Amino acid sequence: MNEQATPQPGDQSDETRVDFVRQKVENDNASGKFDQRVVTRFPPEPNGFLHIGHAKSICLNFGIAEEYGGVCHLRMDDTDPTKEDVDFVEAIQQDIKWLGFRWHGEVRYASDYFEQLYDWAVQLIQGGKAYVDSQTIDEIRQNRGTSKEPGVESPFRDRSIEENLELFAKMRAGEFADGEHVLRAKIDMATPHLIMRDPIMYRIRHAHHYRQGDDWCLYPMYDFTHGQSDSIEGVTHSICTLEFENNRRLYDWYIEQLGIYAPEQTEFARLNLTHTVMSKRRLLQMVTDGMVTGWDDPRMPTIRGLRRRGYTPEAIRAFCERIGVTKFDGVTEIALLDHCLREDLNRTSPRRMAVLRPLKVVIENFPEGEVEELDAVNNPEDESAGTRSVPFSRELYIERDDFMMDPPKKFYRLAPGREVRFRYAFFVTCHDVVTDDAGEVIELRCTYDPETRGGSAPDGRKVKSTIHWVSAEHAVSAEVRLYDHLFREPDPSVIAGDDDWTQHLNPNALETLPECFLERSLGDAIAGDRFQFERLGYFCVDQDSAQEALVFNRTVTMRDQWAKLQKK
Ligand code: ATP
Ligand code: MG
């Protein structure tokens, strides 16, 4: 796996130098190439929801505009009538806003430029630079040649300008069926650059467009749309991913032939993350085939999925800044994204106690019906967050795996005869264990030392561990959903390249714990609220949550795999 995209220890800090895209903008500003204008754009195709890869592009385009006093446009690159939808248009806008960015002016649509593009196509025909080809798509493909062999010129290549104009007008008028003709640029069938071998500019498609309705049955190819759309909008820096490097030659050709304003295209490496896929096609299939519950399933790498899982826009932006932009394709560790998330949540999340796999504890020397209210710190990273009161009573819950009947050497938590600290409360000692018929531990009989209120003993005796707990009588019950990587396989290229890629899905990516107990103060938590459950990770209230039936997602565990990787 190529890991060049992941910053390595000892890398020069990003703060001390700008990346190559920003460098280009600075150079252009210095030379006055665009009269100090900076206009970028984010051009999604509204055929799916945005994912974390798009966030990289969004942060780059909107970020550059902000940093250099420019503007960034949002343009729907909506040239394919069959896959696009107004719901995606809406969702894309919401997700960009949620990430914290605002585009300049109205949302723009490539499809609003169809009339202008059509006129430009006519202009190219008139200049002898485009022709109507009546070969089938298969013939066109076969005659294209290969990287070793030149292509074969179409028998229709030398049609007269008049005939081309007439046919093209009829194509628009709907006089032909899909596939009967296409419009092609007349460039060079022998050039080693396959993209320049008379590329298709228009195809006939009798299809309804979500925005243009039935106005068109002739649709421009993306390559005949993208560069000109940037030109129309006066974009200065057209930033796109590496796979468009080849297409730049063609975009430039169209712009030059038409004699219109020329933006400058710069390519950067797309984001790939371990243990997930970013292809919209795969994500769509996961949704339609029910492998996940929807585009906003918290396992998905979509912005909606991440948001629902509890990721913050701040963490996603910090991650994008941290990975920077390069010219090399690589794979970034998903652990780095989680690391950025923890850094943010650690600063901002109130601490709470919650027990996910409950084991009952009875404090035998604590009077029945009484309650001790104890002070608990809300956030040690933020003094202004203050404290709250947590109730301690005779019956409590602790985490099942904080107790062992027969503890091995390094297990310092609760065991028969052992004393530990209950967080924010008292020292507690286990005396007896109640088991069911199957021998399973179902209850611990303990005592507490009232002298240790607040967590220390006046006689100076120490305990080796502190565990969290919840008062049974005051507990709020909840369903908690735990998540793991969407794919077991770390290398996304393996998943993407495998015909049977669904076999790599992690069957344990979601674990639902139906009966968890949370401390009293979580009773009024509402969807979107985020907390650190002490020792267990960061959690967020899910949108499925209701007053009577709380649902929490675990956003991320406490264990920082990224820090661990750095030490290796
Ligand atoms: P797909 O090829 O899966 O249909 P796409 O990546 O082409 O999707 P678009 O909607 O065209 O999706 O993408 C909008 C913008 O986001 C493009 O400029 C594209 O370069 C950028 N982008 C998409 N995926 C990534 C990624 N993984 N990393 C960085 N930028 C990305
Ligand atoms: Mg695309």
Mean pLDDT: 95
User: Regions with pLDDT < 50 over 5+ consecutive residues?
Assistant: 1-5, 8-12
The CATH topology of the largest domain corresponds to: Rossmann fold
- How many structural domains are formed by the residues? 3
Shape: elongated
Topology:
Blueprint: H1 20-31, E1 39-42, H2 52-67, E2 71-76, H3 86-99, E3 108-109, H4 114-126, E4 130-133, H5 137-142, H6 161-173, E5 182-185, E6 200-204, E7 218-220, H7 222-232, E8 237-241, H8 247-258, E9 264-268, H9 280-288, H10 303-309, H11 313-323, H12 334-348, E10 351-352, E11 354-355, E12 358-363, E13 372-377, E14 387-392, E15 395-399, E16 419-422, E17 427-435, E18 441-449, E19 466-467, E20 469-471, E21 476-483, H13 492-497, E22 510-518, E23 530-533, E24 537-541, E25 550-556, H14 561-567
Parallel strand pairs: 1-2, 2-3, 8-9, 10-23, 12-18, 16-19, 21-25
Antiparallel strand pairs: 4-5, 5-6, 6-7, 11-22, 12-15, 13-14, 15-20, 16-17, 17-18, 21-22, 23-24, 24-25
This protein binds adenosine-5'-triphosphate and magnesium ion.
How would you explain this protein's 3D organization?
By secondary structure, the protein is an alpha/beta fold. It has three domains: 20-110 and 225-341, 3-Layer(aba) Sandwich (Rossmann fold); 114-222, Glutamyl-tRNA Synthetase, domain 3 (Alpha-Beta Complex); 354-468, Beta Barrel (Ribosomal Protein L25, Chain P). Helices cover 27% and strands 22% of the residues. It has 14 helices and 25 strands. It has helices at 20-31, 52-67, 86-99, 114-126, 137-142, 161-173, 222-232, 247-258, 280-288, 303-309, 313-323, 334-348, 492-497, 561-567; strands at residues 39-42, 71-76, 108-109, 130-133, 182-185, 200-204, 218-220, 237-241, 264-268, 351-352, 354-355, 358-363, 372-377, 387-392, 395-399, 419-422, 427-435, 441-449, 466-467, 469-471, 476-483, 510-518, 530-533, 537-541, 550-556. The strands form six sheets. The protein has a seven-stranded mixed sheet with strand order 10-23-24-25-21-22-11. Helix 11 crosses helix 12 (334-348). The protein is elongated, with a radius of gyration of 31 Å. Mean pLDDT is 95; it is low at 1-5 and 8-12. It binds adenosine-5'-triphosphate and magnesium ion. Adenosine-5'-triphosphate binds at residues 43-45, 53-54, 56-57, 77, 240-241, 270-271, 278-280.
